[in-house]
Amino acid sequence: MKDIILGVKDLSVNYKNKNVLAGVDLEIEKGKIYSIIGPNGCGKTTLIRAMSKSLKPKKGKVLLNGDDIFEMKSKEIAKKMAILNQNNTTMSDVTVKKLVQYGRYAHRDWWKGLNKEDDDITEWAMEKTFVANLKNRRIDTLSGGERQRAWLAMSIAQKPEILLLDEPTTYLDICHQLEILELVSKLNKEEGITIVMVLHDINHAVRYSDEVIVIYDKNIYTKGDSWSILKSQVIEEVFNVQTETIIDKESNKPIFYAKRVI
Amino acid sequence: MLRDRKGFKIGVIILLIIFLFIAFLVGNIKGTLKVEPKRIFEVIMTDDGSPERMVIWNIRLPRMILAALVGTNLALSGAILQGVMKNPLADPSIIGISSGAGLFGIVVLVVFPQYIGLVPIAAFIGAMFAAFLIYILSWKGGIQTTRIILAGVAVSALFGAGISGILVFYSDRVHGALTFMNGSLSSRSWPEVWTILPYTIAGFILVNVFAEKLNILVLGDDVARGVGLNVEATRLGFTALAAFLAASAVSVVGLLGFVGLIVPHSIRLIMGNDYKYMFPATALLGSVLLMFSDTFARTFLSPTEIPVGIVMAVVGAPFFLFLLRRE
């Protein structure tokens, strides 16, 4: 029996009067890491935004532990699911610590302050993401990598069962890209948080996830583990490039490179 | 940084309270009839039938209190709008919320003068109407910050034209149309104080109670929703609160611009964007600014009075341009 934490049923989404997703079905199993890949404008971000209630679907449902998220209160969702959005820009100048404390918003009543548990979890989240030494810095003074870790700290301070990330590595250099991905996979292994992330880099997707979901032409084109995605013709069909795949001896995972445009 | 320290923020608030006291004293001393500081409190406490008592109790004291209340309302309204509209240039007068309130208020005043008691409510409806027009016009898959100002300018012009039209058609019924258009505290007294006081108290309490929600909303809609904030309800609630504060100010002093722009911004520059500290500081600075400006407007060309709105425009317009260049 599969343990489904997040289920997408017959989901259709329009964005700016254009049909972006049509009839998507997807099951996310507890404890796994999923990556969503696909060509530009295929609806990856739309899918993850609909899964997090940021976009209203035209049709279909998103079920979190069996409950329809469009009928749940934002607070109830936030206790179970956290979202790290794409390029978070903000006119806010909060300190890292304050930002991470906002992650506790759903867990307390609005008229009450932070209790001991909130403080402990805030500290824990900052240590996990290596921003404890930055806690009094303002987020607008941080570098891209530091800022992304601070947002991640806020997300895990929610103590979610599942974490959605929308292109968490965009605009970061390669070192900070790996840093975030290592961190995410560590959170999965050590804290058991289910991960669903949209990634641009196919090698990152196959390297860091249990399952890769390929979106193409308004729906899920295929879904499977790293080998099944890279061995087949999927990448060539979806991205229009000729590929070559080799094995990384250290991780036993495939690595691919694009040879030429078809 | 210094401005991130809690102690510094509290220090600024204490300093503003001292300024408030000074502004209050200066406002009561200054004028054709000079009153000794010591006498001010004597005549406030006891009615000794002296000319000082007359001037202080009937004119200067209520006017200073009214200046403080109006300053608080407009400054808080601006601070809220900047947050919910994610636009640092939002101000109730610039984006048309004040003129919406003004139009609806003046229609009641002129066309249905028997319902004068409904002016604040009509003004509130007008302000909300203006706010929703702005949202509708500037919404395109989320709030577009530049479109807000453009839509606001259009909405402001539209309602402004409506007000001018009414003032022309009913010129016989409108007294002090000019002071309404420019915002003035001239010849306002206790009745206006009692009209606006409940709004100021309620507004001040509500903004401070819910400050944290606005802090979270400023992080962005998706982020705020992600941590569990009901984004739509929060935005609606705060917009209504901003409209409510601006409308009550407009119903007693007319269209007074720029307070909601200058004050929250100066506070942001001094002590950052945390609304928990910003709201009290903004309310205080709004009071201080309007008390000083009104004292100046009243005494500078004495015996002629300048509408305080003109003083605010002279200070505010260059400040607006300064902010525009900084963005």
Automatic annotation (TrEMBL), chain A:
It is a peripheral membrane protein. One of its GO terms (cellular component) is plasma membrane. It is found in: Cell membrane. It comes from the Bacteria. Residues 6-242 form the ABC transporter domain. GO terms for molecular function: ATP binding; ATP hydrolysis activity. Pfam families: ABC_tran (PF00005). One of its GO terms (biological process) is iron ion transport. Keywords: ATP-binding, Cell membrane, Ion transport, Iron, Iron transport, Membrane, Nucleotide-binding, Transport. This is ABC transporter ATP-binding protein.
